Batch of 4 targets.
Target 1
Amino acid sequence: SLVVLFGATAGAYGAKLGSDERELILLVWQVVDLHSKKVGTLHKSLVKADNLDLSDQCREVSGLTPEGLGKAEPLDRVLQQFSQLVSSDLKVLGRSSYTLCSDGQLLIRQVLHPETSKKNFLLSDCFYSFYDLRKEFHTCYPSSAAVKDQTIKTMAEYLGLGTNEAEEDFGVWQVKTMVAIIFSMLSEGCNHAFTEPETVKYKYETGPCSKSETVDSETVIRARGLPWQSSDQDIARFFKGLNIAKGGVALCLNSQGRRNGEALVRFVNSEQRDLALERHKHHMGSRYIEVYKATGEEFLKIAGGTSNEVAQFLSKENQVIIRMRGLPFTATQEDVLGFLGPECPVTGGKEGLLFVKYPDGRPTGDAFVLFSCEEYAQNALKKHKEILGKRYIELFRSTAAEVQQVLNRYMSTPLIPTLPTPIIPVIPPAYTIATGSIRDCVRLRGLPYTAGIDDILEFMGDATGDIKPHGVHMVLNQQGRPSGDAFIQMKSADKAFMVAQKCHKKMMKDRYVEVFQCSGEEMNFVLMGGTLNRSGLSPPPCKLPCLSPPAYAAFQTAAVIPAEAAALYQPQALLPTTRTPQASAAAPPTVTYYPAQAAQLYMNYTAYYPSPPVSPTTVGYLAAPPGAVAAAATATHTPILPQPGALVRMQGLPYNTGMKEILSFFQGYQYAPDDYNGLIQLSDQARSVLQAPKEWVCL
């Protein structure tokens, strides 16, 4: 037997059903016996929503009113009545089992499952298997319209069914027509058999992912704006009703190994992915979640792994994974098992523990633990911030993808993680950042946050050839992410005017971008932390030069240091010969190229940062001029700090720490050389710092 089911929400109707997160307000159903071709009683039930504010489309199409819905039963009561009435009708027809049949997948996947999940009550088993009438119709009549273009009306017209929608109540006509379509498919000419129902997964299945797997880019999305404490199960619940692939939730981590509020999710097919995209800006608690397309390469980069140890650890399926952070470096497996205690036994004992280590075997203080059930995992989480040895231990829910990410991150960490790669003197610039009042620059405002340099160049079109070398400047926020703004230096004011006229409000991805002509002076004000608006220029509030500009995560290959300090950082002084890889004698020296103006920017730490400038012909890094490479190859340097280990790196400084606090911290230690003045040309501020009485010099 089939139970033909139709429903409507208080918002969008048709192809956008469920996309606006509105609640269900109507259910209509009727039992159909496929063997005897008899039908049961047609039932129509209104549903009382928590929000009775109906959209204009809903009022027009359904004819329902908030007053009428206010007298209805809530959804949980209506679903109980549904089960009881269906069972009663089946008995009358002499049947005992049934499968739902709906017009498309939206009612089941995008309305019922998400809403019941948010309201914390379970759907009965019958809602996890259903027939999609549109797919069944296309299978029976291959010459009909494509599945995505089918509606109840178009299917009825294809069969020549004479039905008048205006003669019946909303919902009743739809169900009666669906029943008539099913009987036509069962006729002798077709003899269609309903054999392969659609299924909804009961729960998300965890599992490992190998970098050797092939992941279809049409099945992956990126979710952004997640609460930092959300787990893979929370994300699976957000996408309730859609089938996520096994091990298909990968939480993204930042450079510190902490979650950054993003996740990549892999679905079983492109149809499920397209339905997931319709949940853009749906809510998880009080936060709305952005959903975008992603690629299979991005998913493998986050979730894929190659370690046999990790694969063996994750081979135990359907386990709850807990991450432990802050373990003493001397902690053993016995110590961890003793810390967790008998109330939360680890799956497989010691085999259920995975310590994270550096490539040389040193412990990182992280470990992952497997538990066989949710109860044991909850008992373990209660030990959050309890003491092991002399340290408190943090415990969090984790995922298989996070295990892979953490292991990949630490295993790829160099043995000397405290030294940047590689630092050498800054070469004098061959170009300058624009200044003056000539309006030969353009400002792009409203860029998609996912836009990169390649997207901007494609957006500019033929005008790309008129961009100055190294003339593209992305504006980053405090977290080092794109702010939605960018500046581009053109070869002339006329070129800038033409670009502003041609590209203003042109679409990039799903957003229009505003393009304004501006001057080099205005561009520099914004890049240095000022603001540019209709009321004019607002200068940067911070007027002190930053001696050490912030690092740019997107340009890891460029080592940026101030010009005054460049001569103090010689590769001979920083990298002892015993700890650097052997290089070919014929290989040219690596030269990091960065303009002095950009290295001495007046930074405002509460506003924006400029990214390193980029050339359209050298996207992704700053190329040094050939002459600069030759000069660096022939230059001879006298190491200022000849002793290995003469430099130290400080981590964990308060954000408001200044040079005076650092110098005070190191009082009582050895004196720095006092002959810097004859070696390098210093600014007045740097010279005053170096000449002041102290024990250490901060560079």
Note: The domain at 441-528 is CATH 3.30.70.330 (Alpha-Beta Plaits).
Target 2
Amino acid sequence: KVAIKGIERELICPACKELFTHPLILPCQHNVCHKCVKEILFAFEDSFADGGSESSNQSSPRIRITASSMDRIDRINRSGRKRNSLTPRSTLFPCPSCQRDIDLGERGINGLFRNFTLETIVERYRQAARAAIAIMCDFCKPPPQESTKSCMDCSASYCNECFKIHHPWGTVKAQHEYVGPTTNFRPKILMCPEHEMERVNMYCEICRRPVCHLCKLGGGHANHRVTTMSTAYKTLKEKLSKDIEYLISKESQVKAHITQLDLLLKETECNSERAKQEASQSFEKLYHVLEEKKSAALRAIETSKNIRLEKLQTQVEEYQGLLENNGLVGYAQEVLKETDPSCFVQTAKQLHVRIQKATESLKSFRPAAETTFEDFVVDTAKQEDILGDLSFHSNGLEIPEINEEQCRMYNKALISWECPEKTDSADIYVLEYHKLNKEEESVTWQKTEVCGKSKVLSDLDDDSSYAFRVRGYKGSICSPWSREVIMHTPPAPVFSFLFDDKCGYNNEHLQLNPRRTSVESRAGFPLLLGSERLQVGCYTTLDYIIGDTGIAKGKHFWAFSVEAYSYLVKVGVVPSNKIQKLFHNTHDVTSPRYEQDSGHDSGSEDAFFDSSQPCTLVTLGMKKFFIPATPAAPKDPASRILPLPSCLGICLDCDRGRVGFYDAGHMKCLYECEVDCSGLMYPAFALMGGAAVHLEEAVTAKYREYHDDI
């Protein structure tokens, strides 16, 4: 018999922190109250409706959505919300136990089983906790009597008299199953949540859940390995019994571990007190140093003040002597009264010199001392920075390094880092970043705390450069800052679109992936059969495909990658009024010459080709980027050929009528030209031979975690 009082922790819902009420089993095998599941999903729906504002997070008094849970809203928003998607919508649920996004399938909550076993254990716990509170009869006239039985078929409690009345001998109700007084009534037969009229009679070993025969015949478990319910019951019960027996047999070992942990708790308390004392002593030393510096600075200021006051006071007295009947002037007036020439000359000579000096000082007045104390201003900026970084440094904590290859700058910024030894020694990381601005003298770092090794930032300005650095923390100990990494944001807001599979799409030559984010050209047999008729040269048309969304105004940026094996790819923009001409143009590319009988490459063909194009495109292929031949371009053909970047970007400025082609990895412009933006502008791509283009995927919250899971 299990001791009920020792298992409280297993009976608490991870969402509401209360005893389970109608718990549901998630696909990850964790349990959550039925009401909590609905409230969490409703809270996320409210967050979508309010744009993820913080004011919408408190929509339920029962559930509080944490900041880490709110970071997963983008991923849930991405599920089942793509344009023109024909796939059924699935529901992602953030499990509060394992912190993972769990796919609940098309049926959502309705596809989850109630955990009746856990519900029964919770009810037994409740009964043990409220043994003094009796369960009253549901059918007695007031006042009701204490119940003695509960009927599992009727889902009601009875006293002895009422039970006899409602379950008379010789009737069907007399065969009902009854137990002791309880408020937990569960169905006798477990029904399938997907096929509500079918009882579960099999167990899916892949999904680890009970299923019915319809699920196996044509449902979501058709190709899964299943076993009978009795076999699964026997197998799982044997495994669970063995595991429990093993744990019980190791009771002495568990007690030894508990004793060891108790000692570690006490040791931790002692060590923490010792660390506090050492830290206090360190800060006391700093206080003493600062007090000494403060006293010295104040003494120096006081000494300088006294000297200056003395000089100014002396100067005041000298000028007061220049007043009539005062000081020097009064003395001179008395000397003038002397009538004896010899005595007068003897005294007047020295007095005249003093009068002349006083006259000169009066003409060029200058204070004897400065009143400002600018020389005594204490510059503590560097010391403040040092004190701001003051922490417990440890040689054992590795310095993280920002991995520039895994970082991305697109609609948002993904900053990723790792430790040199590939170990996760830090508990938490602090990422700091600031915008590079030559006009600003002081740098203000923005700070964010991260539990993992990557962070998605969404508050960066377009067409700007940012510096990033990161450090790790383990408790109060931190590592030094990593090397600063400078990254550039796109020159304009990111424009999202998919490849259009309707307008002019040639499914014989081009192949789209289901999400319409990648296109691949398939030369195949039609090209071979077409070339069989040719004897001289080879005339081949490009296969075009455009984006499914147009641009009417503003400045926009989008990025994509071209497979290294691609023979020929053209990328750019096309106006809506020239799309039909684009798909019906039969003279896109000719090789080796545009005219078979020209006999030379004079360049006139290039001029004809450029002028005949209905759209603005640049050529890529064979791992090269070809700058178009324009009057402003270098005359040497070799200087117009650049290495093909791993990721390319296009920036269309409809207001200025210009389009630029970028190395999206470094946000560096490779080529820019004018373009007519009088109508709607569409992204355009052309492929020939073996080639493939992949649109850059938008960065969302938990981007790295999502791709690692895949």
Note: The domain at 401-489 is CATH 2.60.40.10 (Immunoglobulin-like).
Target 3
Amino acid sequence: MGKRRAGRELLRSLSKKQKKHLREFGEEHPFYDKVFACCFMGCYCCCCLHLCFSFQSEDSDKSSAESDSETEVEQVSGYHKLLATLKTSPESESEEDESESEEAEESEAEMHSEGSQETGEGEGGEEDTNDVPEEEEGTTDTAEQMLSQEQADGTDTSCDPRHGVIEEFTDVKHESEFSLETNFMEEESGDCNADRRDSNPFKQHMDKELEEKEIEKMSTLPKASSQSQWPRLGQLIFSYTLEKHKTLKADKEFDVKQLHLHKPLESTWPKVNKQFLSAVDKPTDFSFTPLQRELFCIMNSYRDLFYPERNALTNGEEIRHAYCLHALNHVLKANAQVLSNNAKRRDRKPGTDTDDHRDQGLTRPKVLMLVPFRECALRIVHILISLLEANDKKKIDVSNKKRFKGEFGSDPEEKPPNLKRPEDYEAVFAGNIDDHFRIGVAILQKSMRLYAPFYSSDIIIASPLGIRTVIGAEGEKKRDFDFLSSIEILIIDQADIYLMQNWEHVLHLMKHINLLPLDSHGVDFSRVRMLNLNNWSKYYRQTLLFSSLQDPQINSVFNKHCFNYVGQVAIRNVPLTGSISHVVVQLPHVFRRLEADSITSVIDARFQFFTDKVLPEYRDAIMSHTLIYVPSYFDYVRLRNYFKKEDLNFTHICEYTKKAAVCRARRFFLKGEKQFLLFTERFHFYKRYTIKGIRNLIFYELPTYSHFYSEICNMLKATDNGVDATWTCTVLYSKYDAQKLAAVVGIDRTAQMLQSKKNVHLFVTGEN
């Protein structure tokens, strides 16, 4: 009875979010636990993958007490806790000044972490495990029983782990209402004559019957390409394997009716998009901005698209509205075709058998939207609802809307006050920034169903981590990726953020999309398109890829995992000036070129070049206050182990370092007690702290985000002590860093630097 009473008290003390997490994972969120652990995600979070490498590298090297303590901290720190600190960090964490009060707080934290244990686990060390009651296991079981009792009383049970790995919402009440097999077309709500329009892009794309020789041609032959210049998008590269399709030109203006949008969207789109049209000086039409017009022209042709100039501050929402319109238009047309054929099959004479009604895939999901945070999913659903509502009087029926707002919305009070960060940071990390989610959306005529089971959904909105935990890994018992078999539109938005999360999740998805399902899932094979039965779905899938930068890893996905028979379009504008023009301090920049035989050997070549030629120049005490910027976590671990082995006077900060250790490292570096500071790019991405005391900068590799280069360089002005004449900046690069180099110094300088094998010296005298 004592355990059960304790379970009830524990359940009452939990917040709504904590109860939700307990139902979903069977344990409390690690951010609220006394003992933090990152294993609750089944080792899918990127910190676990990184730390597996880190632990193997550190077993043989434990020479520094401080470094060892921070290594222990990394073991118990999680990537999700890193995200959680963005919204729950205390007010003192937002202050950039090294005031006396902050010094006192840091000293107190240091005394606590070093005085309580020599291992220095501080906030989440072994001592906390002793505070956990012995009956905690029984308490958890009782809490789950209490949750089950709540669910029996009508509480949502979709997140209960006993219902399966997938976040499926078993909504029996609305199952028949949203079933494509049992419903028929309502003439006033849809486009009954959609299948009669020969110029309909949807029909043209999906009804095209490829031959085996064409499939073999696309699989073996290289792609041909052509270039075009558009007014707003700039330089476009068209790639294709089959015969060259009709040249796509940018229309200066067009009528919405010419786009063959589904009936409701023709009237709702101009109203939904009105907010962006007001910012256009001279709109050529009253429905699209110039950027949206050209992007939608490509989308509506069902070509693959790569747009690497997405900006969260300027055009991010414009792009989101455009691809939501395209995805919803595709879903409505596909469902209208199925419902129309249902009526034809119902009215046909008994005994007649026809093969003309092949209008479905092997599974129902047609669109997969990959977004980084819950806030993005929230905005997408709001756009979809707005596009389906003709006016304020004709509201559509949205199932489970209240639950969706509770789980994907954010509390404004959670944001810490006085948090001074750049505008782009505020735009990216707005709202709910949880990155583990997935939700199915079913749309049928005048209704929308949120939290639909995946196999009853038309659109799936998910994060890479949310999809990865469903797909699972080879050998796992509970894994499922059949729902990806018939995806017709794949939208990857803000792809650059996945480089800061875990790019392996994106690659894992691309390997499991458009494969033949292992189970039939109740499909009527007489209605399945031949392209799906032939396992040719990937040749019909349209991929829309949006990013704020060009990166070799993103380019690789677009070039190697997209097989659209219509072809591909990539925007390839070259930067003319580069982010170095935004450096506002007088600083000499030395770009040192390293040679590598191949792209796979450049990692070892860079390390050897740094340790043999660069680091010896900075060992002297006169070159103190040296910050080493390291984009890759694996390079950071390798350098940290080398610095320990060489017994160098250094400290380090990475994305897994505890707050107290970060404070110590910043203070040691500012006062000159530590000569070197190893600093990771992902820590800067998630925190954007201003590091004071920098006199010498070394970019171990060019930053992923070009504006990080100017941000880091401008940190030197944070400490104005009259010694700016001694400031230095050294950058390591190779011929394989051409894209990153162009984003920093501009295309003209990049061409000169890649042709010459000598070091390049640039001197920036303020903002250009």
Note: The longest strand covers residues 586-593.
Target 4
Amino acid sequence: MSDQIQFIVEKLNQEPFRKNYNLITFDSLESMQLLQLLNDVLGEIDPKHAVDIREELPEQTAKRMLSLLGILKYKPPGSVSDLSAFRQGLVTGSKPVIHPVLHWLLQRTNELKKRAYLARFLVKLEVPAEFLQDDTVADINKQYEELMEAFKNLHKECEQLKTSGLSTAEIRRDISAMEEEKDQLIKRVERLKKRVETVQNHQRMLEIARQLRLEKEREESLAQQKQEQKNQLFHAEQRLQRAQLQLKEMHHAVVDSKPESLMKKLEEEINFNSYLVTEKIPRELESKKNSTYFLQKVVAEPAMSQSDLNALETKINEVNAQINQLIEKRMMKYEPIDSKFSMYRQQASIISRKKEAKAEELQAAKEEMASAERQMLQKTNQAHELEGSEVLKGDEFKHYVNKLRSKNTFYKKKRLEIAEITAEYGILQRTEELLKQRHEAIQQQLQAIEDKKGISGYSYTQEELERVSAVKSEMDEKKGRTLDNMSEMVKKLNIMVAEKKASLAPVIKELRQLRQKCQELTQECDEKKIQYDSCAAGLESNRSTLEQEVKGLLEECVQEESNYHYINCMKRNLEIQLQRAKEEMKAYVSPDPQERRKAIREQYTRMILEQENLGKKLREKQKVVRESHGPNMKQIKMWQDFEQLMECKRECFLKQQNQTAIGQVIQEGGKDRLVL
């Protein structure tokens, strides 16, 4: 509680509150001051609530605060679970009610500001159903809902833009830079147009340049189409090679197999595909839909803080604990029939899990086999490009591949067995824990009853005797069964060993020959591989040196081209400047006055004379204004004095008229009195 108060005081002493409290002054606040402090915090979150609570009734204050706290999703703590008690404490300004609210509000002020801002636009107004029967009201309500959805979308886009890292300053800089580039390009185009206009037949040259550009674009599009067709041809060749490889494998499979095995293989594939279509894929699809639905619900809800997540986690833990307790109670009260059913259910669940695991493993094996086939096809294509013939054939390593497949099958089988044993071990361990707990509870109850009856230890002795007798009878029975089973098993094993020896003798002979052949082929393959690696390394080094030389020559060529274009442009500029200088000199030296006027020097001379004349006129005008400034100011002062004098005369005249009117009224009143 002290940490909570200290946190509240620290937050209130900071911006924007700046209350300058300490623990003693905050603890000594009265209920009215606490309520006003809570109202100030709520006013900082939502400016509509920045009011003086002395100007409204306590019930109105409590109603307003409760409505805002409901919008902000505040949940009272466990000690104030009753809503009426919480409302009463909020009305009276109780410290156990106000302090947790202040602590909760000050912990997440920025988040609550955002929530209060959104609540102004997203809290839907409930319109009664009888009013919605009116078409006008229904249309307005529909427009209101559409505007609310539009506001949601705009707010999401705004938040995304804020978090995307793009600032308005950067955008303005980019826009200004692009505008500058645009202006430069426009000026450049204008200069080029002016430069081209002096050339003869420039329209025809522009048309030829336009046609050249169109032809280059067409050439690029044709090159792109050619490349696309090459890619399509390459992919078609790959598909053809893949189909030929599959055809070859199918031929080998048909040669080495029988119709019964082919039918069996097809039935297995059909069963597997039907299992995927009817059970596995619909289940996965349903789980994906459920997860998508829950994610959409989570996205539609407002943002949750860390405290909300902690509250949900505690609630989940409580529900899990209740579920475990119910399971334990159910297991403590189960009947033999239920135990059999549970055993069958457990076996069925284990079988279904095994089936799913097998299906997943089969799917993974198929994907792995497809990827291996793609890699093999790529390597075959590379070998064709380098040497023009296949390096390896499937028939040469057939027995080796079969051996690897058997090992892989054996490994997967053992891995599945380990997974099943691990799952069964977990189930048995949990069952053992539950049975131990149940046994301890029963033992405690039995011990309490024995202590109450005065025969403590009786049940333990009786259980030990029964257990010893049961174990003895069970061991005797097991010994008899084990001896019989062992004798039968020894006979079967002897028969099976003899049969296997007889059947494996020719296979072992063939295997020895194949092993010797495999060693020879492996040695030859290693020698060829060494030769291939050395040749590939030499070609790669030559190719890299040639590429570097070509790259250097291309860079040098580009540099020389740029220098040529730069020198050509400079030469063009100098020629134009020289031409302008010649024209200027010709116009200046020409005896014709009209031509001489066209010279730039003459034009600038005329402009200088005009500006000098204009400056002379302005100086004379300035002199006249400066000389007449004093008399004009005196005349303005005299007119102002004359205006004040006339205003005084008007006021005196009005006062004299008022006095004469009052005197006449007084004289008439005196005459009336005399008459009376």
Note: DSSP finds 18 helices and no strands in the chain.
